[in-house]
């Protein structure tokens, strides 16, 4: 055969760092180098003149199909991977092969050149990478499960703080109502006794009626405040536990949620101001919206005004345009250093872990604002100059299916 008499081609075969072979159209070995004989362990002389089916029967069907395709179409076939395990070797070895037609000057295909590059190490590395990736994905899923559990715990903790605040807010008007009712009961008994004795005076009747009128007004006012607090808490609690979508007024909801912190702010001598435009209708998720407000308030009390420091929290809500509202939550507390500000939204990052902080508060805020409410959040802070959160939220939240 002509190819066996070309010195240049033989030199390439002898010196090539990859496996090379030349097959006749009937899949007989015309040339092969030492490197390619490692696939089956047969010598060069043992290959020449013999068919692929004789030397490598496990690969014969695939090789014959490739050769037939090249002879029929004249098109090369590249990137075919071959794997096998010789009887005298324990580990399976892999190659990637490239098949090109060898033509005579008149274009006739007289043979097929095969180049095979061993990729055993690459395959081993790929398996190790896949194994490491699978392990990493498993760890990530486990971490996300833990994170979800901690987020739910954080929500329950926030709800617990809200319950404590509501309990105090309800206790005050109910305590006043009880005092008024007790006084009214005692006066009613005295009045009944005078009526029974038959010596009721006009002044006594007038005084009793005035007392009843005043007591009734106080009872209505105090019980109304308590009922309002209970209703507000019921709605906020339902929103935060169910996270259902509904239409609501953003200003009203903001007031309801932040009112739960009035007592804590008073006790810590932190001034609080809230300015909300009216008629800020939203079709969104009031529970997550309230969770954002709760976490921002807790974050300010925990970090901005730690160690008994006092200051001011300013919250404002306004319409940016027909489709978006802007929520500004700012404090004049201690502020953040640049490295803390940069990592503020990272999960589990906190500067007060020794005080029991989970490092999830602002991460939850960012996740809710961006992923659930479809908004944007921006943080600005400087040491000693306070912290400012700007949230731009769509009035109609995107569907999250």
Automatic annotation (TrEMBL):
Catalytic reaction annotation: ATP + protein L-histidine = ADP + protein N-phospho-L-histidine
One family name in Pfam for this protein: PAS_4
Top-level taxon: Bacteria
Domain Histidine kinase span(s) in chain numbering: 165-397
Name of this chain's protein: histidine kinase
Annotated source species: Bradyrhizobium japonicum
CDD domains on file: HisKA
Coiled coil stretches, renumbered: 115-142
Enzyme nomenclature, EC number: 2.7.13.3
InterPro entries linked to this entry: HATPase_C_sf, HATPase_dom, His_kinase_dom, HisK_dim/P_dom, HisK_dim/P_sf, PAS, PAS-like_dom_sf, PAS_4
Lineage of producing organism: Bacteria, Pseudomonadati, Pseudomonadota, Alphaproteobacteria, Hyphomicrobiales
Leading EC class: transferase
Alphabetical keyword list: Coiled coil, Phosphoprotein
Keyword Phosphoprotein: yes
